[in-house]
Amino acid sequence: MLFESYYSGMILNQIEASPATLFLKKDNKPFLIAGPCSAETEEQVMTIAHGLVDADVDLFRAGIWKPRTRPGVFEGRGSVALPWLKRVKEETGMRTTVEVANAKQVDKALTYGIDVLWIGARSTANPFSVQEIADALKGVDIPVMVKNPTNPDLELWIGALERVQAIGIKQIAAIHRGFSTYAKSMFRNEPYWEIPIELRRRMPDIPLFCDNSHICGNRVDLQSVAQYALDLNYDGLMTETHCDPDHALSDAQQQITPQAYGRLIQSLVLKKETTDDLEFLQHLDAIRHQIDDLDFEVLNLLAKRMKLSEEIGLHKKQSKVSVFQVARWNEILEKAKVMGRERGLSEGFISNYLSAVHQESIAVQAKAKDEV
Ligand code: PEP
Ligand code: MN
User: Fold this and answer.
1) Among 268, 210, 263, 255, which Cα is nearest to 48's?
2) Residue 289 CB contacts under 8 Å (≥ 6 apart), including other chains
């Protein structure tokens, strides 16, 4: 209930209220951003751009100044590549966007008529950089996209969006490109979908795009991640494309040709956020009622469970027994995993759910007072 109803309400809000005209397309189509990770040569840029025209791309991306993790590798062509993007616009009509990381880069990009700027993940993680970029944009009317920071910190992401908003930029979008983790994962950057979903709840007017390339770090998962994002009602996609992906000077493993990109976009199933079909709406309503009832029941049960935690806390206190017993916690967790599995509930979900319940229960037990 909680997820379903606030989510659908929120999207409606956003479409009605959003001032971000450039970023929102009609007919339920996602806003498409595509182009190479890096602009390498004029010929490479032009070949990719012409290859993307048929895919109905809205914004052509190319990295000019590349933030690389280690030194000594290709760090982008710099300003010499800016006239290439001007040519892209002249020849294809596509608007262009580049990543900017400081005031000097902002000035250069504006001088060459770049249409949209984006703030990269590493810059978003640094409020000094974001503020410098924002200050350089004072009085300029240009759309700005803000990627999530590399670390899973929603407040930093929101802070960056607010800094850009505060200097008067009207057209702002957020790009979800996943988050770095030390743990091994099938993704290059873990999506942690709950973070962009919470961003949507907190800033419903900001269009949200999915950078499936940097989330995946490979080609095979690009389609399913893009589809997942659209199923969550994202407003668009940013995908890296290259005319010769295997020989790209950066992010070679995740780039696809403009032709493969065209096929990927064609394969996506666009979902509407709602419909006028009465039968569908009635059925939806009936299921939602059942979900609401169950959630209500679960909350009542949780309240009952916490009452028992209070009681057990007091009982332990009176006998001077510690609140936390690791063996008991392991037993609860293992039992629940087995029961969950039998009922088709994933182990990750069971463990997240029980951890939250257990944490609260420990806090309640520790606070249990004699008068209870
Ligand atoms: C990029 O888009 O090529 C890039 C460097 O992305 P991110 O800031 O998400 O790492
Ligand atoms: Mn890249």
Assistant:
1) 255
2) none
Beta strand pairing call for 31-35 and 236-240: parallel
Cα separation, 241 vs 252, whole angstroms: 10
User: How far is ligand 2, taken at its centre, from the CA of residue 35, in Å?
Assistant: 10
Q: Is 147 in the pocket of ligand 1 (CB under 6 A)?
A: yes
Q: What is the pLDDT of residues 149-199, one digit of tens each?
A: 999 999 999 999 999 999 999 999 999 999 999 988 999 999 999 999 999
* pTM score: 0.82
Residue with tokens 């969550």: 232
Both structure tokens of 247: 């020989």
Across 35-64, average pLDDT: 97
Cα separation, 33 vs 59, whole angstroms? 5
pLDDT of residue 157: 98
> CA-CA-CA-CA torsion for 181, 184, 185, 190, nearest 10 degrees?
0
Q: Using a 6 Å cutoff on CB, does residue 61 contact ligand 1?
A: no
What token pair was written down for 80? 């010499």
- Which residue CA neighbors atom 9 of ligand 1 most closely? 121
pLDDT tens by residue, 94-141: 999 999 999 999 999 999 999 999 999 999 999 999 999 999 999 999
CA–CA separation, 58 vs 52, rounded Å?
Answer: 10
Long-range contacts of 130-133 (CB under 8 A, 24+ apart): 130/159, 130/160, 130/163, 130/164, 131/163, 132/102, 132/103, 133/100, 133/101, 133/102, 133/103, 133/106, 133/164
Closest CA to 104 of 75, 65, 68: 65
